[in-house]
Amino acid sequence: MSALARWCHRHRLVTVLLWLGLLVGLGAASGAFGTKYSDSMSMPATESSKALDLLKAGMPAAAGDTDTVVWHTTGGSVNDPATKDRMSKALEEISTAPSVASVVSPWSPQGAAQISKDGTTAYAQVNFTGNAREIPKADVEHVVELAQQARTDGLDVQLGGQAVQNSESEMGGASELIGIVAALIVMTLVFRSLWAAALPVLTAVAGVGTGVIGTGLLSHGMSVASVAPTLGALVGLGVGIDYALFIVNRHRKGLMAGLSVQDSVVRALNTSGRAVLFAGLTVVIALLGMLILGIGFLNGMAISAALTVGLTVLAAITLLPAMLGMLKLKVLSRAQRRQLAEQGPTELQSAGVWARWALRVQSRPTGKALVALLVMAAVAVPVFSLRLGSSDAGNNPKSSTTRQAYDLMADGFGAGSNGPLLLVAEAPGAPERAALAKLVTELKTVPGVAQVASAPMKDGQSIGTVRVVPSTSPQSEQTSDLITDLRERVVPQAEAGTGLQVYVGGATATAADFADVLIAKLPVFIAIIVGLGCLLMMVAFRSLLVPLIGVAMNLLTMGAAFGAIVAVFQWGWGSEALGAGAAGPIEAFAPVMIIAILFGLSMDYQVFLISRMHEEWTHTRDNRRAVRVGHGETGQVITAAAVIMACVFAAFIFGGQRMIAEFGIGLALAVLLDVLVLRMVLVPALMHRFGAANWWLPGWLDRLLPHVSVEGEPDPAPPLRVVPEPASEPVDATR
Fold first, then answer.
1. pTM for the whole structure
2. What membrane topology is given (predicted)?
């Protein structure tokens, strides 16, 4: 790290220009080639995927996305001549629009059931030529525009379906800017220097900018979800600002201690820079751990997020030293520069409040540890009612056309009309067709089924479809039970001894399959990243207890994150106020992403806290002093880092996107609790109780593990005490 720091400092202008060139070059490439995001959630081993594959092979025209145009009249009937003529004209225009394969009107023989019993609501099925995520956004927006032109004062026209929902979703926006401004304010208050506050922001923006643009280019070579850039920005801004913050803080201490700018930069990179590199590695490993799940939808997000984090680390250890060299003493506040000129070198002390708090935790560790555990347990309680699934348009903001279409459909045709199941059958001969007809009759008597409609099979056609409308909404637990009942009881009975093969598919079944696959693989995923995290911590700090404490804290943090998410989004405690729609299940892939992100971030704070304790332990071999000094000296900067990261995450809550809001709420609250309750209370309390055992590692294991220095070269002399331990009141560590 020393050689890299010296080179970047000496060639600071070249380093800055190289980063500018990288940004401009990637931006030019992105402008030339564009992006090719894909949100396909297909999983070949699931029954819904088999149904879709069969449909594509035998009936390609029916395999595209099906959306709906819904209209409701407040006076008269949808069959009134004026209303019928107006909507028939709109549907005819839609049928000739780009990417539209066909339109099934309620006034056609096939759409006879598409008018409500009271005659005030009707809908048309718009069949697109491809999957919802493959249809150009402009084509979907054109369909929306054609339909909405038919609106009048007495005729409400709305659109629903996955393609329409994708077209009205806008990722990103002002969220990143709000988070950056909030972070800048916090760092200005901490550093009392606008230059010092701006450096972490500039560093993070450079890393995130290259990462997001690189993600767009990466989408040409692999499947990358359209949400990946937003998640990359969410994680990258948080960790990027924090990483640079730790290095800037260490550099300022070096300057106040009388080091030259270059020597201070080198010392900062060789100490905090190493911790940043190690912390970034843990985040990248946790994110790439998602690759073991073998799900293409998550693979792209994992790689793109890991790429963004990696680039923020690269910016912190290259671009930041160059900018520190350019600013020289301007990273200090005016008062500090004046003090340095008048009084000479001095120790830049940590805030007294954290030093005093560290002494209080040392004096009564057991009581404070119990309080911390109770706080985390209380926040995590809702996690025991966690239900994974896929939110539907009923969870969208009330102002969206998809939510309004959903409500119109539910009122006119029942909740299940918003998520019908599609049974795809292989029936090549007369016996199979007879069995299929018998199955259709049987389906009408199955509990939870509101409506059954089968499409007539033409001569020579071997693929048949049956549309099953549940009596409950797509996200309902009863609908999931219905899917299971159809697959495990109803369909097998119809297939027995007939040669008929039936698969239960459709968007609702696909979402249920996706959730089931992830839930099944989640324990293995958690075990692998926990094991890797333990191994890394063991290598870094030559200890058995420190990694175990870190893993336990990370699990508590995850519990708090999911507890908050369940309370807000599943129980509905404020989700409407956030613009994230009504209560509903938690997105199936959210746990995987949040676990990966939180595990990495929690390990970051553990590394920064323990590395300072370990540095002090190597000087004195006094556990009480090591824990107290590390706790007191890192308290201010770790807390500031957590507040900054929480601000960045919280800025994404109000973007109107339920999925992103789930990440924002869970991560923001979890990071704050992780630092304020766990790292600043529970971890030091436990380490005081365990004493010198914190730093014990069996000799045989010590010989097996590679030796890596997270702290770099130790300072030439022991640091000054944060707060001297009172001689008159000896500390009772047993209390």
1. 0.76
2. Multi-pass membrane protein
